[in-house]
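fyi for ur records
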Amino acid sequence: MTTADTTAVHTRTDEQLGTFSLRPVDPLTDAELLHRWVTHPKSAFYLLQDATLPDVEREFMSIAASPYHDAFLGFHNGEPAFLMERYDPRHVELAGLYPHQPGDTGMHFLCAPTEQPVHGFTRAVITTVMAMLFADPDTHRVVVEPDVRNTAVHALNEAVGFRVDSTLTKPEKEALLSFCTREQFRTATGVTPA
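which gave:
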């Protein structure tokens, strides 16, 4: 069973919603939970709709073994609630597709599908994710490439400081290449990463 533990690598308290924390994904013990999340109809843009449980285990074992990609399970008040992937866009997802700058860090995130949405929750999650990424002094700019059809995430990205650069054609989707600097994040959210 997936549980919170003492291996949290980042914790943030949201004034309205409480405590958010992240720890590295354990590909084997977290796979069943992640499989439920990524194959849910509300997670279509995560592109793992048809994945089997062994597919999800392999995907996250591959991420764990990569020097350029890692995954984190996010918790809200101690309960598993979201997933975040961090990657080096020079080597993963965007290799050769845009003019990389030193300090660029790529990111994906997914909130656990729920039938009882909490107002402001997804924004609190992306704010926590961005705060974690910018807590690393080597991260100067966060890069995302969401599907052009994913209008909900475009609005969230803009709310935390992302600016659209261009549209990219990737094998799996048409993507909106967007960037957010540390200063854009701070200006948009008022959050100063620790």
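The mean pLDDT is 91. thats all i got for now
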